[in-house]
Specification:
It is a single chain. The protein is mainly α. The chain has 2 domains: 37 residues, no CATH class; 64 residues, no CATH class. 41% of the residues lie in helices and 0% in strands. It contains 5 helices and no strands. It is rod-shaped. The chain starts with a helix and ends in a 6-residue tail after the last helix.
Length: 117
């Protein structure tokens, strides 16, 4: 191969790839896994017993826990009751970090970027 054609071939190869080995081709022409990462993994909702229940115990005890006057009607040691109460639970939860924990439990679809209606 003459030197001019070899230089042209090497130049075309060098221009078609970026320095980190990622292709500069449009996404529909790229080899899967080269330049674009896979979709972000789903974030699971917080574990009720480990994350949500301690927030509720700090803010809603003793009334909504065993021996409390409201436990019979609204037991906050039951995750289903907390889901049924929904956003009304924020009337007693003041700290933004506690609200974020409860919001992640109540609205896991919003955490993962989708909104099921």
């Amino acid at each position: 191969m003459p030197l001019g054609r070899l230089t042209l071939a090497l130049t075309l190869v060098a221009v078609s790839y970026c320095p980190h080995g990622e292709s500069l081709q449009p996404p529909h022409q790229q080899t899967p896994g080269m330049a674009f990462p896979a979709e972000a993994p789903e974030i699971p909702p917080p574990d009720f017993a480990l994350t949500v229940q301690p927030v509720l115990q700090r803010n809603c005890s003793p009334c909504h826990f065993p021996s409390g006057v409201m436990h019979g009607k609204l037991p906050f040691d039951d995750p289903e009751t907390v889901r049924e109460v929904g956003s009304r639970i924020f009337s007693r939860i003041r700290k933004p970090e506690d609200q974020a924990t409860l919001r992640a439990f109540l609205e896991p679809d919003k955490i993962n970027g989708s909104s099921i209606q």
